[in-house]
Structure formats: structure tokens, C-alpha cells
TrEMBL record:
Keyword Glycoprotein: yes
Name this polypeptide is given: Carboxypeptidase
Originating organism: Pontibacter fetidus
Keywords: Carboxypeptidase, Glycoprotein, Hydrolase, Protease, Signal
SUPFAM superfamilies: alpha/beta-Hydrolases
Secretion signal span: 1-19
Gene Ontology MF terms: serine-type carboxypeptidase activity
BP GO annotations: proteolysis
PANTHER family: RETINOID-INDUCIBLE SERINE CARBOXYPEPTIDASE, SERINE PROTEASE FAMILY S10 SERINE CARBOXYPEPTIDASE
Gene3D superfamilies linked to this entry: alpha/beta hydrolase (3.40.50.1820)
Amino acid sequence: MKKLLLLLLLTAVIVPTMAQRAANPDSAVTTKQQVTIKGKRIAYNATTGMQPVWDENGKTIAGLFYTYYERSDIKDRATRPLVISFNGGPGSASVWMHIAYTGPRLLNIDDEGYPVQPYGYRENPESILDVADIVYVNPVNTGYSRMAEGVDKDKMKEKFFGVNADLKYLAEWINTFVTRKGRWASPKYLIGESYGTTRVSGLALELQNSHWMYLNGVILVSPTDLGIERSGPVDAALRLPYFAATAWYHKKLPQDLQQKDLDVLLPEVEAFTTNQLIPAIVQGGFIEDTRKKEIASKMARYAGITEQSILNYNLDVPTNFFWKELLRGEGYTVGRLDSRYKGIDRQDAGDRPDFNAELTAWLHAFTPAINMYLRDELKYKTDLKYNMFGPVHPWNRSNDRTGENLRQAMAQNPYLHVLFQAGYYDGATDYFNSKYSMWQLDPSGKLKNRLDWKGYRSGHMMYLRKEDLVKSNDDLREFIKKSLPKAGQPAKY
């Protein structure tokens, strides 16, 4: 009898725990919240939970975790914008922009974005929730999103883990979400960061062609190359303006350049890059020695490293080497995603850093905050691990035409506007490459009045710096307001 009682007690403890590990793919919890934005108190509903992904036979094959913020004092949803937010990786959760950029809560960091203790979060006075409702979506294996119990997970990978597979199932998911929440009439925006820019660029056309859902805007935060060709001399040359920005930040430029403001210096470096450096690298081994040395000398002035090191790489300096070399004399490396951050390697020798100093700092700050916030404030209870980065590899990158997808979506939809946002100190998706993507997105030039670019004095996640948090969110507000058509304005050329 005692053994039976003990068994029943153990079962009562174990079964709910196992059930929580196998998350319900169609469930949600809603809480009522408030936040002060730009000095105004705003009430909103926060819904967080899972919404299913179905296969072609209607079988549930995954549950995607999302958090949806809907302002509760708005009666007319037809004119209320909806922003659908993705991060990147691929394999990254939506945590970054959620609790550090556009959402109503902001993690505890200092004004430059570095971790502080105690961990936690506070109100975000810059959130765009005053002008738009927002949903943060976690693709499969990120956050709490998982494949459904009982599916063949190896066989399902081809449905989720690739450029085009990603677009197909996420577009279906968005269609269901918009339908369930009654948001078909609302102006709609996609925002993506890093690989999320590949995702939202492709989704713009997938939603339009397969779901007849037309967008008002796409926002590309620290964009990837979007499948736009830039190999060879162009690829090699486009890094230099980023090198110059980083060297300027760390005060490694000659005095005459160092005393210039970044807004003055960078146009000068960009002009040299397009007008002199690309033509020089195009000549390869047939460039005259004197010209090669002249170009290397100018590059050294702008990059803050030696002329000889540039010649050693035949004018094609790898970013890994630059991150190791710039502060080698001081015993530091610089960060990949944000070169304001410094790292310490085992030895100063070598041609690449041991680790990404900035990413380590960010995981330090974000991981406790998102776990506390979802459980304690949004009341979402689960024993699943929140995947900051989840297993999604190998990722099928073939046939990436997402830049062309975005161009087609813009051409077919006169309402659609695009905003690029980039940090000057981002070495992974550098700012000048994002300008190049914008320039090459539409070779005809007929869409350029709907394309805009904004730069910030920080890195990949420009919003971690307080000054840029304010500026970048204000830029989003302005973009949303500008891209909303006037009442009765037709979508036509």
C-alpha cells in the first residue's frame, strides 16, 4: 500500500513535468500591461504562446512560439499597423529586437549596451507600440518553438531548414496568425534583423504571390547580402569603409583623419573605395607595382593597419585578420558584430580572434532577462529550454534570390516601401555592403523613391546604444507614418 502511494505521488510530480517538456503547439496566455512611451501611458494586451504549423494534409508538424503586443485602447484595427518581427541566425530566437529594440520592455544594460547586474528588464520608453502592434515570431527550434511530438524530425528538416523552405512555412503561419487575430484590414510591415532580412525580403513576395497579402513596408536591420552578387574585387573592396569606421572609433587613424567627424570621413573613404580601390583590385597581378603600393598606402591610412600587412594580402584584407590586427599592439581583439567591443585572446599572435567578444557580452545580458520576463511578467510557464540559438543546420542556402524577390514585390505593389538600418561598427553585415544592396536592388532606379537607408554609430544591434535606440525607433516611426497611404489613395503608378 505504501509503495502504491509512493508511486502515485511520483507520477503526480513527473507527468506534468513531462507534459510541460512536450509543449502544446496551440496554446496561449494573455496578460494586461502598461508602458510609458514618449511620456504617454499606453495600455496593451500581451499574448504569448504557440501557434501550429501544418503540413499539406492538415497534420500539426510544429508549434511556433510568439509574443503579440496589441494596444488595448484602439478601436479601429483597420488603420492600426501590424509589425511582424523576425531575428536571424538562421537559428536565432526573436529575443534581440523583442527586449532591446521595439518591444515594450527593455533589458538592463548600460548606455553603450554592456551587461550590468542585477539582471532584469524595465520599461522601454522608445518602443514603437505607440504607433503599431507587434508580433515577435520564433522559427522552428528557436525560443520555445519545436517540431511536434511524433513527427520524423530528420525527414521534417527539409520543410524548415533552408532559405526557401523557411519562407514557405512562415508565410503559411503568418496567414493563420493574421486571420486568427482579425488583422487582414491592417497595414502590415515585416522587420528582420541579420538573416531575418533574408527572411523578410523573401516573405514579401511569398506572402504576395501565395497568400495575396500585400505589405506596406519591409524593414531590413543589419541586412545580409540578400542573394545579390558581389564576389571578387567588389567583395574585397566593400569592407574598407567599415575598417575605417572601426579604426576611427579606436583612435587608430592619422591625426588629420582622426579629427574629422565620422559623417565627414566615411563619404571620403566610400568615394576612394568605389572610384579607386575596386578598379585597382580588378587588375589583379597586372597592376603596376607603384600603383599597388599607392593604393595600399591609402588603405593603410583609412584602415589603421600597416601598409605591409595590406600588401601581404594583395589589397584583399580578410575581416578576421583586421579584427585581430587593429589592436594587436595593445593586446586586444575587436568584435565581429560590434567592433566597439574588445576581447582577450590566449596569445597575440595569429590571424583571427579566439571568440566573438560582443556576442559573449550579449548572451550574458539577454539570456537571464528573457527567461525572467516570459515566466514572471508574461506568465508563460514551461520546462522547455529557451533556445537563444537553436539547432537548424545544415541550412540549405541554395537558390537565394531574396533580394530579387523583394524587388519584384515592390514592383508589383506600389504601396510597398523599404527601409535599411545599419551600424557603422558592424563587421558581419557591414554598413557599406547594405548600401550596395540597396543600390543594386533595383537596377532600373524606378523604385528608389521608396528605398531609404539609415546609419548609426554602433554595431549589428545598433539599438543597444541608448542614443541609437532613440534614433532608430524614431526612424521606424517616421517610416511607418510615411508609408501609410492617405485615405482613398490608390495603389497605382
